[in-house]
Design a protein that fits this description.
This protein has 271 residues and is mainly alpha-helical. 77% of the residues lie in helices and 3% in strands.
Length: 271
Amino acid sequence: MNFFHGLKVRLSSPTGTRVVEAVKILAAGTILILAFGFLTNRISYSWHWHRVPRYIIETTDEGSRPGLLLQGLGMTLAISGLSLVFTIIIGLVTALFRLSRSVTANIIARGYLELIRNTPLLIQIFFIYFVVSPILGMSRFASAVIALSLFEGAYTSEIIRGSILSIHQGQWESAHSLGLNGADTYRYIILPQAIRLIIPPLTSQGVSLIKDSALVSTIAIFDLTMRGSAIVAETFLTFEIWFTVAAIYLVITGALSAVAGRLEKRMRIAA
């Protein structure tokens, strides 16, 4: 429930609700088609699930160690975690630029948003890795983090800006009457209230970040998706490996939604 709650918060409009329902119907239909194919032998496939555990936990004479899929998961979490930190920073700065009275800050913010939101993430990854990276001497890991941070930061900035704008005007007036300057008003009055509104859609953005991180495999980063692809190419365990990879992504994103839901509930009670 928490997983779908975070998604519904972001897609709360009538159009968004229809999209969610369409996705559910599509997923259910896909499962039914696959089940029908296997049950009626229209899809001939010999399952080898017993070969999958070695790619999760590898057991050797020296003991157990993470398998290739867990190694890829570690890379995915490292990229996603670091990207999420920079995403929030970029999103906050961009939102403040858009709310600023400075014409220059507004132009910079709007230019960044239009550029990022109107170009595909994959193209941005290629541009940063093949064009910017050689000039600045960046590694694949750094290129992936920067590309994901810039892409997700554009959408996060709108989440933060919308939450700030939803704060009642009286809060601003009260802060000014107390003699607080702009920075202190944001720090002590506005942002603490906006955080409660930011968390649900930001959780959904975090889920999107984890899923979008799969695209970094295109620049030869051995994340979870790349590891899965390499194992499939070597073993031909197509369904077993990809179902396992999908399950791992589902567990991670579901756990993120659950933690954010609990945090949101505590903050609501504290308020």
